[in-house]
Design goal:
Length: 208
């Protein structure tokens, strides 16, 4: 599947941008309950307010998913982003990420579900400062599946631009309520690693 490149401009806000063509492919099994999917996008460029710019390059995703309990998609997914920059030419403010890789692994067992996330970033730059070799790994264990499924379904509403601030706040409260209920029966959050290097000094933490 190939989606053509997109150019856009908002006359009200002067925002404009460009998104390169999206290439993707998905292969399902006969039952339509398992899927292997890949997608890639080479460039995103957005300008807002005459001075703000956002750029992202070399985005990709590879996913192996199975339709699980409560119609949740479970399995693994890996996301990659070559470079991301956000800056304001008027104030000279700048934030950049290089070589971000993030992997998720969702496994159901009985009425519970385990979720693991692992992310690495080669470097984060802002102003004249820099963090390097950033790593974050986290596990959420023994979550109640039906509340996780409900939380994911309600979260889709937050992606709708038509929501006003009051509606968005109401949806967010419902999502957080489900998140809390998911931990009622022995759910655990474990930070396996949060570490980075700063001026040749490495620091980190972990806990549960």
């Amino acid at each position: 599947v190939v989606m053509d490149a997109l150019h856009f401009k908002d006359p009200k806000t002067s925002a404009n941008g460009y998104v390169s063509e999206l290439r993707g492919n998905a292969t399902f099994d006969k039952s339509l309950k398992k899927v292997h999917g890949v997608a890639s996008l080479s460039v995103i460029h957005i300008e807002t307010g005459h001075t703000m710019q956002l750029n992202a390059s070399d985005l990709s995703i590879v996913a192996d998913q199975t339709r699980g309990p409560f119609d949740m998609w479970v399995g693994t997914a890996e996301y990659k982003l070559g470079q991301f920059t956000l800056g304001d030419s008027a104030t000279k403010w700048h934030l950049g990420f290089d070589d971000l890789t993030s992997r998720s692994d969702i496994k159901p067992h009985g009425q519970s579900i385990d979720m693991a996330y692992d992310s690495t970033i080669k470097s984060i730059n802002w102003g004249n400062d820099r963090l390097s070799q950033v790593h974050f790994a986290m596990r959420l264990q023994n979550l109640t599946t039906k509340y996780v499924a409900s939380m994911q379904e309600k979260s889709k509403a937050l992606q709708q631009f038509k929501l006003n601030s009051t509606e968005r706040l109401a949806v967010t409260k419902n999502v957080l309520k489900d998140f809390g209920l998911a931990f009622q029966h022995g759910g655990v959050i474990e930070i396996q690693d949060l570490s980075a290097s700063y001026h040749d000094t490495r620091g980190g933490l972990n806990g549960r």
